């Protein structure tokens, strides 16, 4: 199992969440709720394992697991759903194999490796995400890739962010 502390490379990462919906009834364990709600709180992601992120909340040590919550990885569908309402969303993906392997179509390879690249999810259908890459228009489908939905292909559901103004 891979474990890590986010602070070893970039420091803790601030994350916006739907706390009213997610955290009010949390008492422990790995949180795996995919219900989406309005973003209303910021927390600090401080570490991870293959299965979950370790997140510190500001509600004090009497809340959750001594002030922390473990949030399942790969279920960040709320960010994707919210992106449809607010615009494009930045996502981290495992893209090493895309360089030589993607020529077009819906990408459905589940053997993608580790997260190593940031891209912009600009839309989606029931079958796939539409993702803009930074490698120029000569790559993929005029600079875009379609990534299959439903199986967290290339870790696309693990880490998505968008601004709230």
Automatic annotation (TrEMBL):
Domain of life according to the entry: Eukaryota
GO molecular function: cysteine-type peptidase activity
GO biological process, one term: proteolysis
Pfam families in alphabetical order: Peptidase_C1
Residues of the Peptidase C1A papain C-terminal domain: 17-164
InterPro entries: Papain-like_cys_pep_sf, Peptidase_C1A, Peptidase_C1A_C
Family indicated by similarity: Belongs to the peptidase C1 family.
Protein name as it appears in the record: Peptidase C1A papain C-terminal domain-containing protein
